[in-house]
Amino acid sequence: MMALLPLVYNVGMAFGAATGGLLADPVNQYPRVFGNCEIFRTFPYLLPCLVGSLTTSLGLVIGLLRLKETLVIAPLPAADTNESTPLLSTTRPSVLQPKSMLALLTPTFRRLLSGNWLAGLAFIIGTQVYPIFAATKPSDGGLGFGTRSIGFSLSISGIAILYLQLVVYPRLERKHGALKCYQMGLKIMTPYYFMLPFLSMLASHIERTVGGGDAILALPFPESWISHAGLEYCLLWILLVILVVFQLVGDILAFTSINLLVANIAPSRATLGASNSLQQLITSLNRLVGPLAAGSIWSWSIKHQLPYPFNSHFIWVLCGTLMFFSWRLSLRLPSSIDVFASGHTQQRRGGV
After folding, report:
1. Which terminus of the chain is more exposed, N or C, with fewer CB under 10 A?
2. Could you report how far apart the first and last alpha carbons of the chain are, in Å?
3. Mean pLDDT, consecutive 10-residue segments, the chain of 352 residues?
4. Three-state SS sequence of the chain
């Protein structure tokens, strides 16, 4: 069940990004349909925001009406009572008493959370800065893509997510274990961040040497491929697709496994909620800090004519470095966390 959470998140990321790119600025993208809509001319990003708002509202309604409480508390056993019996019982024998948060922070759990924090921060920074990077002119270190091309490039992962998550990952996890899959995912994602910004050099070459290269890059992807298919432009998209798929494979391996490992490391079933809440706290902090850092670092890097790695590559080098250190931390995790600890009658020794 824990492995399904990244599936839902990844599907939402892929299709949400594609929807945003396809619906942005509808007056110019679809003049026959929205050409006379003054509100979308004044607010070109209103349509994707409305779709996102309606989707979130639908999720809220489903959650309120259909979700059931998962904490089942058995009724207290009947007993003889009299005038001196307290009305409220001080014990609830059917509910396990969880440990404190500090008791959960064993050395292994701290190491796991630290690696998750580094990997999650790198992933969120990279995810947030990619649309900006893709829209930036090649001369400034970007790809020069238009809105629909950006949406198409973000939706590539949606094609492969279901197969990788539902078919490939379970087989790899059964064969190698969640820890090996986690380490493999971090290792795969690390070179992605170092290699992605070099595509800007190819885009810059297209902009300089191909007639109307800047206009070709800004065209929606299918139209530009059919009408202006050239070796350099085809190579740009082929390399981009390969890198995106690599990143997707690493994402699924790493962030699906981290949910399993956090559940495994909980010493008892009573601490599963606390363990997962600490992981979600780390994720929420990354979602707060990541977008702020992404925009600021990218703006700083393209404004200064500094040598590599402090040029437009800097934010990608930073993400790759964070992912590398996360991978190094994962190598120090014991193989025992592949076992579901809360299923044991006794807590394992050795700090786990």
Report:
1. N
2. 23
3. 64 74 83 87 90 91 84 55 54 51 79 93 93 88 83 75 83 91 95 94 80 50 51 84 90 90 77 80 90 90 86 94 96 85 43 40
4. CCCHHHHHHHHHHHHHHHHHHHHCCHHHHCHHHHCCCHHHHHCCCHHHHHHHHHHHHHHHHHHHHHCCCCCCCCCCCCCCCCCCCCCCCCCCCCCCCCCCHHHHCCHHHHHHHHHHHHHHHHHHHHHHHHHHHHHCCHHHCCCCCCHHHHHHHHHHHHHHHHHHHHHHHHHHHHHHCHHHHHHHHHHHHHHHHHHHHHHHHHHHHHHHHCCCHHHHHHCCHHHHHHHCCCHHHHHHHHHHHHHHHHHHHHHHHHHHHHHHHHHHHCCCHHHHHHHHHHHHHHHHHHHHHHHHHHHHHHHHHHHCCCCCCCCCCHHHHHHHHHHHHHHHHHCCCCHHHHCCHHHCCCCCCCCC
The reported pTM is 0.75
Contact 114, 187 (CB under 8 A): no
How many whole angstroms separate alpha carbon 283 and alpha carbon 120? 7
Of residues 154, 125, 60, 130, the one with CA closest to residue 287: 125
Check residue 28 and give its pLDDT: 84
- The b-or-e profile of 184-203 (16+ CB within 10 A means b, else e) is bbbbbbbbbbbebbebbebb
- Please list, residue by residue across 236-252, b when 16 or more beta carbons sit within 10 angstroms of its beta carbon and e when fewer do: bbeebeebbbbbbbbbb
Vertex 204 angle, CA 148 and 44, to 5°: 25
Rounded to whole angstroms, the Cα distance separating 121 from 319 reads 8
- The closest of 124, 134, 139, 122 to 317, measured between CA atoms, is 122
